[in-house]
Specification:
about 190 residues; Arc Repressor Mutant, subunit A; elongated; RNA_pol_sigma_r3/r4-like; sigma factor; DNA binding
Length: about 190
């Protein structure tokens, strides 16, 4: 079963109708509901808070200008998620930060000696490990594991092949295991 996206928010038809009619209050409500999921997705893909904030703004502007193109038939959140993914990937390409292969060097993560609750410490460690990965690898891992995209869908989004997605996922997973000091499962 694919993971449930943080975008999986049901938007009432009445709210969409008001947004299509240009009602500012409807756009503000949609913005409030989706600001955090768009920011999180953009941060995971771009690896930079400022870039992620820009992706939120670009995504919401595109939503504002193209809301009339959403015809239904699929969830609104899926349509908006697709806009956000495209905006984040376009920003990476535009900034030439789109590394196409994972670097196989073994840089250590910066140490943080603050005391956090175990779950928060694990989340912070995972965030630092993800940020140590090249943008393309981090994007594949996030799109596959967190957003539930298939390798074929990732390949289309990134204008690559499914084998590229699969190899980046495998290499990125190995690199994350190393950075997080998780032992590889043995194949007996």
């Amino acid at each position: 079963m694919p993971p449930v996206s943080s975008f999986a928010i049901d938007v009432p038809d009445t709210l969409l109708t008001r947004a299509r009619a240009g009602r500012q209050d409807a756009f503000e409500q949609i913005y409030r509901w989706f600001e955090r999921p768009v920011f999180t997705l953009a941060l995971r893909i771009c690896g930079d808070r400022e870039e992620a904030s820009d992706v939120v703004q670009d995504t919401m502007l595109k939503l504002f200008h193209h809301i009339g193109e959403f015809r239904g038939g699929s969830p609104f959140w899926g349509w908006l998620r697709q806009i956000a993914v495209n905006e984040a990937l376009m920003r990476l390409r535009r900034n030439r930060r789109f590394d196409m292969e994972i670097a196989m060097d073994e840089d250590d993560l910066p140490q943080d000696h603050g005391s956090l609750p175990p779950a928060a410490a694990d989340a912070a460690l995972l965030q630092r490990a993800l940020s140590a990965l090249p943008a393309a690898t981090r994007s594949v891992i996030w799109l596959y594991h967190a957003e539930g995209y298939t390798h074929e869908e990732i390949a289309r989004l990134m204008q690559r092949t499914p084998s590229f997605s699969k190899s980046q996922l495998a290499r990125g997973t190995r690199r994350l295991r190393t950075l997080l000091q998780i032992e590889e499962p043995s194949h007996a």
